Amino acid sequence: MNPTRGFAEGEYRARVARAQSKMQAEGLAALLLTTEPELRYFTGFLTRFWESPSRPWFLVLPAQGDPVAVIPAIGAALMATTWIDDIRTWAAPDLRDDGVSLLAEALCDIGGPVGVPSHMETHLRMPLADFERLKRASGLGFTDDRGIVAGCRAVKSEAEIGKIAQSCAIAGRAFARLDEIAPPGVALSRVFRDFQRLLLEEGADWVPYVAGGAGPEGYADVISPASDAPLAVGDVLMLDTGAVWDGYFCDFDRNFAIGRSTAVQRATHARLIEAVHAGLEAARPGARACDLWRVMADILSVGESAGRLGHGLGIQLTEGLSLTAQDRTVLRAGMVITLEPGLVVAPGRIMVHEENIVITEGAPRLLSPLAGPHLPVIG
Amino acid sequence: MNPTRGFAEGEYRARVARAQSKMQAEGLAALLLTTEPELRYFTGFLTRFWESPSRPWFLVLPAQGDPVAVIPAIGAALMATTWIDDIRTWAAPDLRDDGVSLLAEALCDIGGPVGVPSHMETHLRMPLADFERLKRASGLGFTDDRGIVAGCRAVKSEAEIGKIAQSCAIAGRAFARLDEIAPPGVALSRVFRDFQRLLLEEGADWVPYVAGGAGPEGYADVISPASDAPLAVGDVLMLDTGAVWDGYFCDFDRNFAIGRSTAVQRATHARLIEAVHAGLEAARPGARACDLWRVMADILSVGESAGRLGHGLGIQLTEGLSLTAQDRTVLRAGMVITLEPGLVVAPGRIMVHEENIVITEGAPRLLSPLAGPHLPVIG
C-alpha cells in the first residue's frame, strides 16, 4: 500500500519551528533559501521545473512568523496549493530586475542578519551579480546559515521515512526483474534505458539518477554513462539508482554476474556484504559517521584514500553526513543513510555495494531489501 | 539512423578557441566554471552524478592554452576519457579543504582577472564560504565572465543540432503513441509515468523533465506534478517534455483532446498554431527575440504580462534568449529556440503549444514535428 502523497501542514510547521528555534539561538533574523531541496523542505513546493535555469526562486524564513515565498509568477498557482500564504511574484525572467527589488523588500521588512547556506554541499542558486545587488539594495548583513537547514533535514520524520521506504521498495522490485533486461549480448546503454523503464513500471515518479558499469573484473567507476558495449558472459554488472517517489530518493545498487560468476567476483561481493553487516552492527545512535567508516574500512582493509563508504539520503540523492575517517557527525534516530562499501578488484576496476537504512533507538531498520552474501547470476 | 555519440576533439577545441578570443578581447586571464552545462560544453564530461550535491567540480579555462580540470578523484577515470589532459584531483568530500587550495593553485599559475558567470541564468555551484576562501587564498580579482560562455553556447554546431534533432525525433515518436497510454479514466500520474516509459522505449537516454496538465478548459500551469485525478472525456491533455539524447534536450509539448474536443479547445489550439506559424515567418537571422515575441503576441492578442513565448534550448532545457518584449538578442544562424505561445482559456486555466526550431540563413528548420491546426482526439 502506498503512503499518502504530500505532508500534513503540521509537518511543515514543525520543520519551520525547529529552524526558527535554532535561528533565535544563533541570532539570525531570517534565512534566505534559493535551491530546490531547501524550498521544498519548508513549503512542499514540488516541481521538475527547476530543470530550467532561467528563473531564480526565493524563500525567506523569518525567525518568527510564517515563510515568505518570492517567486516567478509562473509558479504562483502551484505555490498556492501549498501551506504558504505569503506569496509574492514577479514576471520572470525580467532583464531589468529579476526579483531582486521584491526580495530586498521582503528581507527589509524582517531585518538582518540573514543566514544563507554557505557550507559544504550548498550553493546559492541565483546569479552572483544579483546577490551583490541584493546586498546593496537591502543594506542588510548576510552570513552563513550556521548549518541550520542541513541540521533540520538530517533527522527525518516518520512520514519522510515512509516515502524513502516507498522509493526503496520500488527499486527493489525493479532490481528483482533484472533478468528480463540484462542477458548477455545486450548493450549496457540498453540495460540502463530498460532499467529506468522498470523503475517507472514499478511506481517511480521519475528517475533522476541511474549509474552503473560492467566488466569481468568490475567497473571503472560508479558515475560514467553507459556505453553501447554489450554485456558478456563472465561480466559483473552493477546498477545504481536514485529513483524518486513523491520527492524522496532511494540510493542503492546491486551487482549481478552475467551467465556465470568468477571466484574473484564472488569473494569480492561476499566481502562487501560482510562490510555492510559490520556497518549495520555499528549503526546506533551516538556512534559517529567516522566510527561506521572505521568498522567497514577494517573489513575491507582500506584506508582513507578509499573515499566515503556511505552518506545521508532523503530529499536529495546524497545529503548530510559522509562515512569518512574525518566526519564526526553523531548518528541520531531518524537519520537515513547509505552503507556503500567498495573494493578495488584489479587496477582501475572496482566493485561497490550499497544499502539504505534508517537509524533507530535500537538496531537500524533496512529500507532497501538487504542483499545476501551470494552474488546473483542472471542471463 | 542515430548521429554519433560525443564530439570530435576539434569541436571542443573550436569552442575553447572562440571563448579564448573573447577573453582576450575582454582582458580576462581565466574563466572559472562550476556547473554541469559549463563543464560539459568545454570538456564533454557527461555524467548524471551532478545529481549529488556533495562535491564541487571546477574547470579553469585560461585565455591561452588548454583547460585545467580540478575535480574530485571519483571523476578522474571519466574525465580521462575526454580530450582534457590536465586533470588535478582531490579526495572529496574533504571537510578540511574541499578542493579550494588545489583550485587556488591552478588559478594562481594563470593569474587574474578571473571571469565567473554571474549574470541571468547562471549560478556558482560551490559553497559560498569556499568561494570567499578561494578569493583570499588566490589573491586574484574575480569578475563576471562578460557573458562569454553563454554567448559561445548560444550558436550551435551542426553536430549539436543533430543531437537536439535526435531528441526531438524521439519525443515525436513517443507523442505519436500517446493513444496507448491516455484513455479516459487513467490517472494523470499514470500518464506521466507511462509517457516517460515511451520516451525511453523510443530511445531517450533519460527524461529529466516531464510536465503537463489536463482539464475541460485547459490546465492551471505548465510546471505542476501530476495528480492522481483521472482523465475525463472532454479534457484537453497537455504533455511537455525535455528528453535527453547524448546530453542534448528537446523541449516541446502536445495537446490532445480526450474522447472529444470542445469548440473552445479547437479554436484555442488553432490560434496557438497560427502564432507558431507567425513565429516561423519572423525567425530569420537579424530579427530580435522581441520581434518574434511581438508577432506571436499580436496573433494571441496578449501583452507583456503573458510572459515569454519561447526560449533557447540545447545542453539545458532552457538556455539563452527569451522571447519577451524586453529581450533584444539578435537571432543568428545556428541558434536553437522554442516557439511557445500560450493563451488563457478561462480564469486560471491555460493552453500552451511548443515547437523547436533552428535558425538558418533562410527559413528556420523544424526540429520537432510541426503540429497541424486540428487538435488531435485520442481515447
From TrEMBL, chains A, B:
Organism for this UniProt entry: Roseovarius halotolerans
Domain Creatinase N-terminal: 15-155
Domain (Peptidase M24): residue spans on this chain: 163-361
Domain of life: Bacteria
Alphabetized PANTHER family for the sequence: AMINOPEPTIDASE, XAA-PRO AMINOPEPTIDASE P-RELATED
Lineage, highest ranks first: Bacteria, Pseudomonadati, Pseudomonadota, Alphaproteobacteria, Rhodobacterales
InterPro entries in UniProt: Creatin/AminoP/Spt16_N, Creatinase/aminopeptidase-like, Creatinase_N, Pept_M24, Pept_M24_MAP, Peptidase_M24B
SUPFAM superfamilies according to UniProt: Creatinase/aminopeptidase (SSF55920), Creatinase/prolidase N-terminal domain (SSF53092)
Protein name, as recorded: Putative peptidase
GO MF term list: aminopeptidase activity; metalloexopeptidase activity
EC assignment: 3.4.-.-
Gene3D superfamilies for this protein: Creatinase/methionine aminopeptidase superfamily (3.90.230.10), Creatinase/prolidase N-terminal domain (3.40.350.10)
Name of one Pfam family that matches: Peptidase_M24
Keywords: Hydrolase
